[in-house]
Amino acid sequence: MEIKKNKYTNKKSLYSSGYFGIGDLIFVLSGPEYNIAIEGAINIGNNTYMLDKFGTYMNHSHDPTTYINGCFVIAAKNIGKGDELTYNYNVTA
Question: Which CATH class is domain 2-87?
Answer without folding.
Answer: mainly beta
